[in-house]
Design a protein that fits this description.
heterodimer; A: 233 residues; mainly alpha; three-stranded antiparallel sheet; two-stranded antiparallel sheet; elongated; disordered N terminus; B: 227 residues; 8 helices; 11% strand
């Protein structure tokens, strides 16, 4: 951008922003980029449009069609697949008349038995507990919110969901399975179990939840229900 | 200014005013941005920290200790990188005998067995990515300390890559777990996980904490200062 234009615009902004200090409506009409802190007017998006930060290119907002219902549907799919994905055998091995099978739960148990408590804990957190919590939180929250309920712990749950986002590692675990299979194929004959199919379904629905969920919309819903409840009291 | 596809998209939505506010950060306008729910909270500029109106998280204009914390996690992660590569990550036993494998010797044996594609995947995920993450974060931290004003966008991109790749290093830990669980054929063949896995998991987790505690807005603050 040419420098003269930048200078002229910056003088225009100053009075605008200082004139309306403290008003709640002004804060709602603005949006700050989460990665570079650039302040921009809140974009009014139509369905399936996206807004990127003009300075650093961060995806600011995404307006998704029918976000809430789809998210609930995918989250429930994931929850249904959850039990078989964790407890049913994923891979089986057969050599010299001996055979063994392993489920996700078995993986954690073996690590624990090998005295690797920390590794067992991190696998159970990243591959089981965090994805489970995410699916539970998101389906519970959206289900309650769409029915106009509000309770104080919603905020805590949704913040937990936000922080868990970076720690769910189902896709890494699937790559781990693929690598292990590749290594094992040369060793013995390998069989695939129900657990593997269930795990893939779980992974796909977890990915779809994060793709379909409109995070800003959920925060707005929480805020709206909160304000409505405050007014009612 | 060169228009990218993204910018055209933004402008096509009737957002001409966007350029009006360009190069003004939320901090300069007196807003604390919530790190959890991204809400703008108007606060007096002398305040150190406050509580977000919407979600109750602690908010600040900038986390004063962000750089220190990132350095601390990063150094911890770099230290853990050494035992992660020195100690055996697993032992493959055939008929009760077998030599322990470290990460690198495991990759070497994969190459020897002719499993090149999988060797490359494992090498990238469990050696290059952690090393690249540590280096990348060092570059970001040093450039912020030196108040560098060049390549702001590229550095943000570097940060995004570091953040995105972080969890893929856990691959080897998962592989060890799965292999140890599947290969339980008693005396014929057995895989035992080793102490290297603990060090490796520690390294990955701390490097993820390091990436999380770095604040990319620090890169851009200098861009706002002189406008």
């Amino acid at each position: 951008m040419p420098s003269q234009q930048r200078d002229s615009t910056s003088t225009i902004i100053e009075p605008e922003i200082s004139a309306t200090t403290g008003s709640e409506s002004e804060a709602n009409s603005l949006l700050a980029c989460h990665e570079c802190d650039l302040l921009i007017p809140y974009p009014n998006l139509k369905k399936s449009e996206k807004a990127y930060c003009p300075r650093c290119g961060y995806l600011l907002l995404e307006c998704r069609e029918d976000s809430i219902n789809q998210t609930i549907a995918y989250a429930l799919t994931g929850l249904i697949a959850f039990y078989p994905a964790v407890f049913y055998p994923m891979i089986g091995l057969e050599a010299m008349g001996l055979s063994s099978t392993a489920s996700l739960f078995e993986t954690i148990r073996v690590l624990y038995n090998n005295q690797l408590f920390f590794v067992a804990l991190s696998v159970s957190l990243f591959a089981v507990i965090i994805p489970l919590c995410q699916l539970l939180i998101v389906s519970y929250l959206l289900f309650r919110l769409t029915r106009g309920h509000y309770s104080q712990h919603f905020v805590v749950f949704y913040r937990a969901f936000y922080h868990f986002k970076h720690w769910g590692m189902l896709e890494v675990f699937l790559l781990g399975i693929i690598v292990s299979l590749y290594k094992l194929v040369g060793l013995a004959s390998v069989e695939y179990g129900v657990g593997l199919a269930a795990f893939v379904i779980l992974l796909l629905s977890a990915i779809m939840v994060s793709r379909v969920l409109d995070e800003h919309l959920v925060w707005e819903l929480i805020e709206r229900e909160k304000n409505r409840k405050a007014r009612a009291n | 200014m060169k228009k990218t596809e993204k910018q055209e998209l933004i402008e096509s939505q009737g957002m001409e005013e966007m350029t009006l506010l360009q190069h003004k950060s939320a901090m300069q306008a007196g807003y604390m941005v919530c790190s959890d729910c991204h809400k703008l909270n108007k606060r007096e500029t002398h305040l150190q920290e406050s509580i977000c109106e919407r979600c109750g998280a602690t908010i600040r204009f900038r986390d004063f200790y962000a750089l220190q914390r990132t350095w601390a996690y990063l150094i911890t992660s770099a230290i853990a990188f050494i035992p992660a590569n020195v100690y055996p990550i697993m032992t493959v036993k055939y008929f009760g005998a077998g030599a322990p494998d470290t990460i690198l010797s495991g990759i070497a044996s994969l190459v020897k067995l002719g499993m090149m594609p999988i060797a490359i995947v494992v090498f990238i995920a469990s050696f290059l990515v952690p090393l690249g993450k540590i280096l990348g974060l060092c570059i970001l931290l040093v450039s912020v300390h030196r108040k560098s004003k060049v390549k702001l966008r590229q550095r943000t991109l570097l940060y995004r890559i570091v953040e995105l790749l972080g969890k893929w290093s856990m691959l080897d830990v998962f592989v060890v777990g799965i292999m140890a669980a599947v290969v339980q054929l008693g005396f014929v063949s057995e895989i035992v996980a080793g102490p290297g896995a603990t060090a490796f998991a520690t390294m990955v987790i701390f490097s993820m904490f390091a990436a999380k505690s770095f604040d990319p807005r620090l890169i851009w603050d200098l861009d706002c200062d002189d406008k």
